[in-house]
Amino acid sequence: MPPPEHAVLLARGNYPAHPAGDFDDAERELVARYGHWMEALAAGVLAPTTPEQEHFARAARGEAEPASAFEVAWAKQRQAVAAHGPPPANWREARQRLAHLANLKAMAAEAEAEYSARRAAVLETVRAELDAVDAEFAGRLQGLADELARAEADARAVVLAGRSSVRHGDVYAMFCKERVTWDGAGLGEYVKDHPEVARFRKVGKASVQLRYGPPPDRRPPQPLGPRPVQALPPPAADPPAEEPY
Q1: Does residue 173 contact residue 159 with C-beta atoms inside 8 Å?
Q2: How many CB atoms lie within 10 A of CB 34?
Q3: Sign of torsion, CA 52 58 64 66?
Q4: Is the dihedral of CA 18, 24, 26, 27 positive or negative?
Q5: What is the mean pLDDT of residues 145-155?
Q6: CA geometry: angle at 242 spanning 237 and 245, to 5°?
Q7: How many CB atoms lie within 10 A of CB 94?
Q8: What is the model's pTM?
Q9: pLDDT tens digits along 111-145
């Protein structure tokens, strides 16, 4: 059994493994389960009780190369904190929401693939008729598209010369004046010497962009099979107070 002061932190669990950390699944699980204990051991709050723990503390201080799975995982945690700052306070909730979103996205992709296959099968039954219609209208449609492009260019040129918007029926040519832009970096430096200019600065609201797919340095995941929509996972249960090494 570990000493009581070790046991308390070993039983705590739910340590925030950094979302930007370059962990594999096993390393992320080590940090999440034993992070509070490793943090205290690395900081000298806990005294090592085994040679392995002594080497962990030395590796955490940079006095030895990380060798064990615990040492490598903790080194990746510290590197992520140094590069990106501490994990956000709501990181666990955000990851749960993204996991739910990824599941729904996969289901939508599967439904779209099934729809496309079914639709293609129906279209195949009338493929010859569709090809005949395409052949009949191809030249006519292309000629009209080319003529329309030339007419749009001519209309733009006339409206630009007159510098005023014009409407005719359902066609509206809106004249837009020259756009004025400023060198943001240059103005930032200028404001340092002329702080009175800062009152003209306006800051918009923060936003979030959602991107789907693996990071560039990760292999694409294996194709996903059909699955039901899953509810948000509950918090992990507290691990048993066992000394890992």
Answers
A1: yes
A2: 24
A3: positive
A4: negative
A5: 96
A6: 130
A7: 14
A8: 0.49
A9: 999 999 999 999 999 999 999 999 999 999 999 99
Residue with tokens 């010497």: 193
pLDDT-above-90 percentage for the chain: 64
How far is it, in rounded angstroms, from Cα 12 to Cα 7?
9
Q: Which residue has the tokens 């409407």?
A: 167
HEC sequence for the chain: CCCHHHHHHHCCCCCCCCCCCCCCHHHHHHHHHHHHHHHHHHHCCCCCCCHHHHHHHHHHCCCCCCCCHHHHHHHHHHHHHHHHCCCCCCHHHHHHHHHHHHHHHHHHHHHHHHHHHHHHHHHHCCHHHHHHHHHHHHHHHHHHHHHHHHHHHHHHHHHHHHCCCEEECCEEECCCCCCCCCCHHHHHHHHHHCHHHHHHCCCCCCCCCCCCCCCCCCCCCCCCCCCCCCCCCCCCCCCCCCCCC
CA–CA dist 92, 19 (Å, integer): 9
Tokens 């389960």 belong to residue: 33
Burial class of residue 83 in the structure, from the number of CB atoms within 10 Å of its CB (0-12 exposed, 13-18 middle, 19+ buried) = exposed
Q: Give the integer Cα–Cα distance in Å for 121 and 127.
A: 10
Can you tell me which residue has the tokens 């990380």?
66
Residue 232 · residue 100 · CB < 8 Å = yes
Euclidean distance between CA atoms 171 and 164, whole angstroms:
14
Are 59 and 65 within 8 A, CB to CB?
A: yes
Q: Please name the residue that has the structure tokens 């005719």.
A: 168
